[in-house]
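Re: beginner question about structure tokens

> Can someone show what the tokenized structure looks like for a real chain? I only ever see the sequence side.

Sure, here's an example I had lying around. Input first:
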Amino acid sequence: MKKLVQIAFFLLLAAQVQASYILLPMDHETQKDHLKAYGITYWVLSSNVEAWWLLNYRGGSFAFPYNRTFEKECLTRGVSYEVVADGQFNNILNEIADPEVNMEAIKLEKAPKIAVYTPDFNARGEKIQPWDDAVTLVLTYAEIPYETIYDREVLNDELTEYDWLHLHHEDFTGQYGRFYRTYHNQTWYRENQRKMEELAYDLGFTKVSQLKLAVVKRIKEYVVGGGFMFAMCSATDTYDIALAAEGVDICAEMYDGDPVDPNAQSKLDYSKTFAFEDFQLERNPLEYEYSDIDHSRGRRINPEQDYFTLFDFSAKWDPVPTMLTQNHTRTVKGFMGQTTAFRNQNIKSNILVLGENKPAKEARYLHSEYGQGFFSFYGGHDPEDYRHYVQDPETDLSLHPKSPGYRLILNNILFPAAKKKKRKT
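And the corresponding structure tokens:
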């Protein structure tokens, strides 16, 4: 009997030695919760264990050394996984290394420290702005930790403490989202304006637009210095508009107390922007739009047919865009926002389009290097809520664990963890 116990023990030990990797498959059929799989991978990296991102292998799978604690966490979070031996994993790596297949294995080294640029709560603990944010929703659902910062922290140079920055739904032009016509009598609108004006004065600015300009310039320095910045919805176009309008008053009286510079359009400097050029400002201050960068107006697309397509990139030659477009489908359901999509004619020639609706002549997902860093712009507000209105309830991501639209956000979050490879093109 004792001998049988010893044999069983050694067989178990041998099995654990052989079972040396955990694979998180990311194909549609196998993975039950794509979003939480990113959280597991982030958690493994946070435990000072390196991981692999297997680009284009079964939907962009993840792998890391086997550990009983890691396996239990996969079970706890409901993430599908497979345990593979050394030999099996080496066969996978050999398959990926084949120059004839469009795959690549990228080593993930360290969990990036994440900051979300978002307003504070008021004195009653209520959100200043009555809408949610897709990035904070998916970070919370995937159990990826983040910290919040806002204008004061940015101007105090606290960005240097973070590897990755998300710009929450924001109006960097100082026009309060151009919600004046519909919401200026609402308590939340008036309180937000009062709070922003107080913050601007406290930080030494006479206008909110001047404060926001200082913030976008400081964020620009962060990216130039090697930071990773991701923005969605109106934080994309208003960021560039603010940069182009430096020193020019583009805010009407109801926003800053004095009129717009009548020559504002001719004074825009597109050389200062990240992604957009040759755009025309919206002259009507009551219009729920900033410029013609956004393709929301005049967009004749049936919601049931609103999809955008992700580009295929060479995983071995262009691993960065390949990482950012990993998914279990190349076609993603579209979704609206204050800034929904980017008109092709306003996108600078050096910007990489990652996803587009070609018939509509619009881009939905952009990326580029900038200085030593990178940025991504993603149009729309909530990938699983086609039209997300002010004061709508938050999306329950437990109902959308396979969301391809939310996967694109999480690709950007893990991207800074990748071991830097010299670009081949």
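Each token stands for a local structural state, so reading them left to right follows the chain. Residues 21 and 84 are 5 Å apart (CA to CA).
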